Amino acid sequence: MKRAFTLIELLVVIAIIAILAAILFPVFAQAKEAAKKTSDLSNQKNIVTSSMIYMGDSDDMFPRHVYRYVNPDGEPFTWRDALMPYVKNGQGRSATGSTFAKGGIWESPGKTGFRHSYASNRNLLPGYCHWNGNWVCDSDDNGNVIPGVLVVPSASATELDAPALTTLIHNSRAVTPTVAANERWLAMFAEGAWWWYGGAQFPPVLTGPTSHEKWDYDSTEATIGSRGEPQVIARYRYAIGTNAGFADGHAKFIKKGAYNWCQYQYVKGRNTDTTNGAFNDDSWLFTPGNACAAFAR
After folding, report:
1. pLDDT tens digit string along 59-73?
2. Is residue 65 one of the residues assigned to a domain?
3. Is 26 domain-assigned?
4. Domain count of the chain?
5. How far apart are CA 58 and CA 42, in angstroms?
6. Which residue range is the domain that position 287 belongs to?
């Protein structure tokens, strides 16, 4: 005669399954996050490798962050589009059929659906506008240089004092355009100025809860303010860390609390912000007693 399970036995089995699920589900989640982190790192490695090839064809110059060049579709040309011929992975099409960099390696697996989830270091890849108390642009809508306005050229690999320590790209805030047609204009840069990485305060605090880490989420800009604080700094999506691609062509994972402007964003002798028509000199931050003194080169 077959003996059926008793209610107690069934409850014990259910309890064991529940305990195993409670133990294993976090492990599965961690494994999924680790897979995304690895895929994201691979994307960034391919992007910085493509930049090395680009520079080989461009007198060792990095591309600009965004060009004041309007093509027949009325759309901008960004650093992604400049590198796209060297990647050939991830191409989108506009309403008129022109191609631009979208999807593929341009999209972080940690924040899918956004072509701008990797941001470029503005000190290496400046755009056509810079900050001088207000945004000042060096060219008009047709790409013509405006007389009397300083032009910030992109950096040359040969002028970098520490390419292996200088980030070219990192995980960025993903912004949803208010109008779908504006997607290409969201080129997204990683801020070059210490002000944001220092928590938008003086004296700057470069790590910890009052530094840029306090903006570590993908909220709408209106939640923080109107000046772009959340969009210009690193996002820590993987095991409380961020992936970054470097100016010498390598990529690595950096734990939250270890990423700071002094070591990773600063480019000696370069700055994209100006005061009274002259480019700012941030070297004072590395002098004794100041925020970057421990990272003096």
Report:
1. 999 998 887 665 555
2. yes
3. yes
4. 1
5. 24
6. 10-295
